[in-house]
Each structure stands twice: as C-alpha cells, then as structure tokens.
Amino acid sequence: MARSVDRRPDDAVIEGHDVVKEYHTGEQTVRALKGIDFGIASGESVAVVGPSGSGKSTLLNLLGLLDVPTDGSVTLYGEETATFSRADRTRKRKDVIGFVFQSYFLIPTLTARENVEMPRLLDRTPERTRERATELLERVGLGDRLDHYPDELSGGQKQRVAVARSLINDPALLLADEPTGNLDRDTGDRILDLFDELRETEDVAVVTVTHDDYVATAADRVVRLIDGTLRGGE
C-alpha cells in the first residue's frame, strides 16, 4: 500500500515539519529545501531519489544531525534537534545513527576490522567491539579480509567495510548514500538483503539516497526530491 511522503508515523525515529534549509554564498541565498514535511518510522525503508542539486545531500545532513534547519523543525524521537548542542548531536549520532558514505572514508592506516571498530574506539569493551566488528564483516562477506588495509581492497570491498562500520553501534536509523554504487549486482543484493534483515529483526529504519531504480524499488517508500521540494511518494 502506498504511503504519503509527509505521513507522521506514531513510531517515528525522526520527523520534519515545514523544513527550510538555506545557504548563503556571498550576496546570494540558496534555498536547498523549501518547506518539506517527512517522517521516518522504525523498521521502514525509504529511498530518496532526484537529480543532482535537488537537495538530497542537504536532507541527508539534516537526518544525520550534521546540520540543523534554517526554519521549521526536525525532531529525533520527539526532541527538537535545533536545541541540541554540538556535543549532544555527536552523542546522538553515535547512539542512534549509522552512516554509509559513498566515498567510504576509510582510514588507510587501519585494517578493515579496525576501521569497523573505529566508532567504538573509546568504549571500554574492546573484546566485545572486536567480536562485533568481526561478525559484521563476515555478514557482508569479508570474513577473509579482516586484516587487509584499504589499499588491499577493491572498491566494492571498501564499500562493504563502510556498511559494516555503519552498523557497529547498532543504530536505530541507517543513512546510506549510494550504498550499492560500487558493487556488482550479486553483492549489492547481499547488502540490500542485510538491510532488510536489520529492519525485520532489529527494527532499524533505513534511508537510502540513490540513483539506482533497482535499489529504489526495493524500498517501502520512494521520496522524490526535485528543486528542494518533495514531489510525491510511492
């Protein structure tokens, strides 16, 4: 059953109402988002599609607490994100949100397993962190690459390390920027299956920014963002 783009779920992880985001460059003001509404529920999969410059990255930054709206409200579990201090946002990201970046952002001097462990570096349970990192790398098919460095991995393998790293803190919300863009179809399917498993067994909400129709059709809902405006959902 199709669900509206601006639905406000009772079990929302994150919601936005009349969200505006502006950037100032010299004397010009660029309105990247023009008063949009959204709600992402626990266990839901949402694909965000749209042309370059449509506001997808801006929306992802707001969902990931990397930025705050110029106007309107974004709430995480009912808390207004604009009221969070920088330290609050950092802590909330660690506790609630996982990121899969298109450019990987792996640390070249760390092994695959150490890169996955990195978000929990300051935790006082190193053995448990190592076990969790090993388990996640095995789940994405890299159990035989635990001690390989990024320059010893293919692009697709680096992407899978990035996916494993995004899950190390057991996030409630997973944000993925073109998560299968560097993967062959079989490996991409494996990642999408993992996302589905997380949603079904751990109630993780998954938001994917993608240009791939194949990935978009696998989502519960497709949000089309054009020129800073939501144009409908499927």
Distance between the termini: 9 Å
- Number of β-strand runs: 10
**CATH superfamily descriptor:** P-loop containing nucleotide triphosphate hydrolases
Lateral arrangement of strands in the main beta sheet: 6-7-8-3-9-10
Secondary structure elements and their pairing?
Blueprint: E1 12-25, E2 28-41, E3 45-49, H1 56-63, E4 71-76, E5 79-80, H2 86-96, E6 97-100, H3 112-117, H4 126-139, H5 155-166, E7 173-177, H6 185-202, E8 205-209, H7 213-217, E9 221-226, E10 229-233
Parallel strand pairs: 3-8, 3-9, 6-7, 7-8
Antiparallel strand pairs: 1-2, 1-4, 4-5, 9-10
Helix pairs in contact: 4-5
Structure, explained:
- By secondary structure, this protein is of the alpha/beta class.
- It has a single domain, classed as Rossmann fold, CATH 3.40.50.
- Helix content is 32%, strand content 28%.
- It is built from 7 helices and 10 strands.
- The protein has helices spanning 56-63, 86-96, 112-117, 126-139, 155-166, 185-202, 213-217, and strands at 12-25, 28-41, 45-49, 71-76, 79-80, 97-100, 173-177, 205-209, 221-226, 229-233.
- A 6-stranded mixed beta sheet has the order 6-7-8-3-9-10, with helices on both faces.
- Strand 9 and strand 10 form a beta hairpin.
- Helix 4 crosses helix 5 (155-166).
- It is globular, with a radius of gyration of 18 Å.
- The N and C termini lie close together (9 Å).
